[in-house]
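thread: overnight batch results

M.L. [08:02]
morning all. the overnight job finished for the chain we discussed friday. pasting input first so we're all looking at the same thing
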Amino acid sequence: MQDPRPSTAAAEGETATLLAFLDYQRMTLEWKCSGLDDAALAARLLTSALSLGGMLRHLSRVEDYWFGEVAARASDALAPWAWMEWAEEWDDAASIAGDELRRTWDERVASSKVVVDARLAEGPTALDERFSAWDGNGSVTLRWILVHMIEEYARHNGHADLLREAIDGQTGE
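M.L. [08:03]
and the structure it wrote out:
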């Protein structure tokens, strides 16, 4: 499998570096899920409820939460998450076609990028802006959200490596 991800080494400055690493991690998930049919996206290891389709669904929700609800200051949970308990998206994904899972994830990433671009356009202190999180029980900065999303993707991309190898033997960084 040819690695489609760009190098992050050319990024200069804190903001560009954060965005480059987040895009790199997003592209890693896309790469791990590429070329798989619905059954392969729903495949699970015997000891885990994780699937690649579940990761697409979960990370769509995480994108919506941190960027759509927190950074964009949406007053309510975005659909369809408003009716869904956290962690239900993993099982919910098995009933959704792979093309729809990919399309939803692509749309959520694109929406997140619009929010981040709008926040960054507010000026040089944009990374330090604080946002209410966890139902008002804490606050985070845009910098924290970007670093957290890099961590969130990196953790799940490790899972994706194992799942992809179990599905068809494909491996890669």
